[in-house]
Amino acid sequence: MSTSEARKFQQPASHYTQVEQQTTQRKEAKVYVNHRWVTPGEKFLYVVFGLLVVIACAYVIHFSSNLDTMNRDMQQLEGQITQQQTINENLTYQVKELSNPDRILSIAKENGLKIQNTEVKQTAELIE
Q1: Cα first-last separation, the chain
Q2: Residue 124's pLDDT is what?
């Protein structure tokens, strides 16, 4: 056999190997094309996890909103309490001022009452 005939026999063999390589590459390419990065089960888990995160965020926002409302109500009540305490202190001062024995005696004399050797006690002592 001559070298030229040997080359003819080699070319078809190499041609067949090239064709086989191309078909195997195509098969491998098809395998990779059909390969999914995320399976349907993983998608389901991701969706469930995402929903849980959204629900947890909504709960936290709702809780903080309720807490803020309660804090505002407490501040309003504390303001009302301090205002009422101020009013009570003013009224207590007025009671002490109006129950002064000298004032009581002067009003009694203006209305024509006569005081006969008696002691006038403070009304605040009687109230307590």
Answers
A1: 140
A2: 46
